[in-house]
From TrEMBL:
GO terms for molecular function: hydroxymethylglutaryl-CoA reductase (NADH) activity. This is 3-hydroxy-3-methylglutaryl coenzyme A reductase. It comes from Chryseobacterium pyrolae. It holds the Pfam family HMG-CoA_red. It catalyses: (R)-mevalonate + 2 NAD(+) + CoA = (3S)-3-hydroxy-3-methylglutaryl-CoA + 2 NADH + 2 H(+). The keyword NAD applies. CDD domains: HMG-CoA_reductase_classII. Pathway: Metabolic intermediate metabolism; (R)-mevalonate degradation; (S)-3-hydroxy-3-methylglutaryl-CoA from (R)-mevalonate: step 1/1. Belongs to the HMG-CoA reductase family. Its EC number is 1.1.1.88. Keywords: NAD, Oxidoreductase.
Amino acid sequence: MNHKPVEGFSKLTKQGKIDWLVSEYLEGNEEYQNILKQYWNENADLQKLHEEFSENTISNFYMPYGIAPNFLIDGKLFALPMAVEESSVVAAASKAAKFWIDKGGFKTTIINNEKLGHTHFIFNVESHKLQHFFNFNLKKKLYEATEAITANMRNRGGGILDIKLVDKTSEMPNYYQLKASFDTVDSMGANFINSCLEQFGKTLKQEIATSEDFTQEEKSSLQVVMNILSNFTPDCIVRAEVSCKIEDLKDDSGISNEEFARKFKQAVTIAEIEPFRATTHNKGVMNGVDAVVIATGNDFRATEACAHAYAARDGQYRSLTHCTTDNGIFRFWIDLPISVGVVGGLTNLHPLVKFSLALLGKPSAQGLMSILAVSGLAQNFGALRSLVTTGIQKGHMKMHLLNILNQLGATEAEKQHFVTYFKDKTVSHHEVIHEFNRLRAQ
């Protein structure tokens, strides 16, 4: 090995961790010490708060925090907070919002709000025997055993919605599940769900052990493998949509409204049938979703996993968005499975998260679901609008221009020159380099 393992790294002070890293991996270069420290917050209490969000923290990693205004959602106007580093995401969302603001805006519907979790267990017993035991004994006991855990959630209008026994023995020998659905109201609910499920596992063991329905051999075969929520929530769905007459689809690219609608629908259909395109198509959707998820302190890994699982729910990976152009009406929509919260976690701690939720009018969890679906739909509309008209690079590279110039060390005067230079041209990396060298050679 080229480096030595470290013992007790988590017990070192923050400075001790940095000293060890710089010494062991970065040849003692003090510049790296400075890079880490320049991202520390001057407010010591705020810095400590951020450090305690995670483990072994040595600095903060900044992302741009932007605003996409003019979102008309269910008759109310919003400005969406977006934490994202990718060029053109905020611009595309803003442009889409502006496009639809005079056409009725975005409309949303909460289709369902159920979240899921499972107790996974192995039990060498006849299925009908276990099902009878579940129906006439275990199910009631599971509710009773979790009453203390669910009391506060039930007082807020949520709790355990249903518990089912699922036979998976055809896919894995002796494998069963206790599948539970939950309503966690305004919280994401991960800790609540997992606490309920862990109690399920304990109660399952206790009830099987004391039951006279099973032989000793059957009882000894029981193994509770794990108790865990699922981030796949196909019954926690929000729909966001836009629609207007095709004759009102005025686009500034020069093509007719009818051609724009036709090409746009073709682009969506391709994503519905071609996984290679659907992957990039849905990545664009999640550009919009994740940016607001992060800004509101929610779990973007969970939203990503759920969305992509849902996109492949029939065995082929497909578009999350859909389009029709029937009877002279253009309609574009998304059904997005997403589980988020507005209480608990970072929502009560991170100052920018609190700002984001205040900016959005302190929405309920369902209200935030609607906003997230709209953000994803708007981002996808903006991307497809570019793809079927001017091409994606014209807008994207114009937004990426400053990144290229910063890498080249351009001055402010030079940056202004390039903004003017590319006002009526498509930005390309090659052309930026060529013009930069020409400018510097003068």
